[in-house]
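= Tokenised fold =
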Amino acid sequence: MKHDGELHTLTGAYALHALTPAEHEAFTAHLADCPSCGQEVAEFSATAARLAAGAALPPPARMKDAVLDGIDSVRQLPPLLPSAAGKPMTLTAVLRRRAVSLALAASLAAAAVLGGVTVWQSQRTDQARQQAEASEQRLQDFSAVMAAPDARTVHGRTTGGATTSVVSSKLQNRAVFIGAGLPDPGEGRTYQLWFDDHGTMRPAGLLAHDGATLMQGGIQGASGVGLTLEPAGGSAQPTSRPLLLLALPA
């Protein structure tokens, strides 16, 4: 049974129906008096629903021929535009946008199994298939962390006031970073994620804007997560003061 202070960490597992009967009963009672947990459960539930929607139905048998026939004629899709400058994004909006992107990646991967996908009007179907398979793998890893029975969430704010969360699973040995309200890093700069291995910072991926990101590398040996502003392409070690340091659950 979780102590009252630990009940706040069960929002993700509750939204995914991954609690034990005793934990479910205790958290349901806690939820009635905790608006912040109620909001987080709603956000996780919405994201889980959209991730589930990304599991495509078996495509029609004629799809393969239609995709291959359209490789040389299908027009390139316009780029996705960022949100209007100056309007901060809520955590719900970030998760919703990211979930839609993940669902699209899963659909592309399903089409790739049939013989090839044109993403950017490219005749290099092998490259498109590899990109789709990589997207499918990221989706599977992302979903595994969010749905893990031991998933735990910690929250924090950057020095600039952006809202952040980290969902980690020791069973999956992975972590997901979620950021909302991060300003444009500026030309030639990027946000970089780090695992804090008890004082040694280990690169964990780059972040260009708000969103949910599967951190690179395992959480084994890490005591925390950090965020810095680095030159484009990232750094082997932090070159600036941390914008955020979050301790991972023990």
